[in-house]
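Re: Re: ligand-bound prediction request (bumping)

Still looking for help on this. To restate: I need the protein modeled with adenosine-5'-diphosphate bound, output as structure tokens. Inputs repeated here so nobody has to scroll up.
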Amino acid sequence: MDVKDSIQFLKGVGETRAKQLAKLGLFTVEDLLRFYPRGYIDYNHPYPVAMAPYEGMCVVKATVYGKQLPMRIRGGRTIYRVTAGDDTAGLLLTFFNSPYAARGLEENRDYLFYGRVGGALARREMVSPTYVPADGSLPMTPVYHLTEGVNSKYIAKLVGTALTGCGAITDPLPEVLRQKYRLPDLRRTLEMIHTPKNEDEVTAARRRLVFEELYYLQLGMKLMRSINLRANRAVMANTDLTAFYNALPFTPTGAQQRAITEIASDLCGKTPMNRLLQGDVGSGKTLVAAAAMVIAAQNGFQSVLMAPTEILAQQHANTLQGMLRPLGIEVALLTGSVRAKPRRVLLEAIATGAAQVVVGTHAVLSDDVIFHRLGFAVTDEQHRFGVRQRGLLAAKAESPHLLVMSATPIPRTLSLLLFGELDVSILDELPPGRTPIKTYAVTTALRGRMFGFLEKQIEAGRQVFIVCPLIDESDGDSPAAHEMQAVTTYFEEVAKQFLPHRRIGLMHGRLRPTEKAQVMQQFASGELDVICSTTVIEVGVDVPNASVMVIENAERYGLSALHQLRGRVGRGAAESFCILVSDHDSEEVHSRLALMCHTNDGFAVAQYDLEHRGPGDFFGERQHGLPRLKVADAMQDARVLETAAAEAATLLSEDPKLTAPKNAPLRHEVEKLFELGGGLAIN
Ligand code: ADP
Ligand code: MG
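Reply:
Sorry for the wait, this slipped through. Here it is.
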């Protein structure tokens, strides 16, 4: 048997089982072997009953005292209760509908029970624990993520069959690396991760898996980057920006000027630019990009700016037009909603070079968008785009200069992971004349007063954003439909009960891009007083007259997300407010919201998020578009990440495209990780 074989080749897998396993993403023997346990039950270190961590999963050792008579309860269910305990406390065991589980227990015998401990201190409780008799030493038992019909025992057995059935397992990780870092080979690793004898084996296996994962990741990132790591094909000469500056209604900040100088020197350099422009919301990143576009245009090159949403693209196009038209530079807007005929005209203008600057959504990646001479590519709010999309954008020209704009402060280790090695320019200075946003945290009990306040603001000619309650990640078929329902209900309530005489707009993800753009346009032009929205307004939208941002269910968001939302207001000179609504009563929520009330500093906010919630939250679920890491953790394994990056660079210096026959298994792993099917983006 080979690891590439279908999982149905394994004994014990019929058609039904195969379907269940497919739900877990397991199709081949290899998938199964790479399906690591999410944890282990270690029966060798049980807790005394009274010491068991409350509400956590753990193993306790207890003696069975006696069994109670089965009881019928509602819904035709039967519960079986067993009393047990040790000399520290009593333990009540409850099993629902499973006579076998209770029957298997003998009185006056010791058992190890695994489950969640609840109840009171005097008598602890466990519901439906798994158990084994407490005699002799026991292996660690793997616990897997499960789907209906499949339990951990079944998976463990299947893994055993697979490991025995597969002869040799090719190890893609080069032996030199395994020796250098003392990593076990693949077969041994898989054995140790699935059936460890002790914790040391888990640690050893995990070390290898972390290294391997980060190594493949770095190989993939570097391969994609190498598309544009040849010589600078878009060599530019520094140009005079005086006319550009003179046409601006304001003076650039010192930070903006510094960033522009850094970028200008990249554009004239030997290798293509690969730079991150990082600046808090409102720090004026667009102007910096515009300056670079001027340099490109004056050197005869086109520029492209890609934004994550249609609204943002629209807004960028307007802003850039304002800044570039006076210099005679043409800006074109290309989004998914441009109809066939005008689209053809646009494509023509792009192909001839008449459109010197192209702004758009991912529509600009489409195959038929062919640039005459692209020299400079910018992506805004980068972490919303996949690594893949960035690669595709770079592939629109031989090796354009790349600029990534982000409002989220990114620590070095993460930027290494996300972007490969890149240079960073930071806008650490806000344009003058901004009044800091005042932030308040309130409960829903104050809703009446809050709307009273909004009424006054509207009366004074200001506008209001309301981010509506989030809905739970629903088990139902369509979260988007639920979300639309929730925001619509909220909207109707506000319109009827709280702000009956005001013009209120509704915005959610189910609207078509053109509809969204229209609502946003009405808001921007002052035809609406209030906009009730889901988080689709999250990024970048600029409405200087909006002075209040209300966020319902504020506890549901990471602080960086709250900060981004808050950044939608405070863009004009008027005093601005952010109201965080939450009825959540935990310490943690209190301290997080308190931090928001005390600081307007995006870096402080991001740092707090990173320390308290980890990088996952930091970037929002899966928004960064990187492959999902199964084992490694970008923050905790930062040291390994650096090593893996260095080793990946070494290998690629010998085999730049990873095409040497001996590296074929490696290439296969990299393509699998990036789901590149055929290596599309890395050739
Ligand atoms: P962000 O960095 O969040 O993308 P923008 O580029 O949208 O910020 O700029 C935010 C606002 O600040 C815009 O209305 C822009 O016109 C204004 N702005 C940018 N630079 C300056 C400056 N140097 N002085 C005054 N206002 C500025
Ligand atoms: Mg912006």
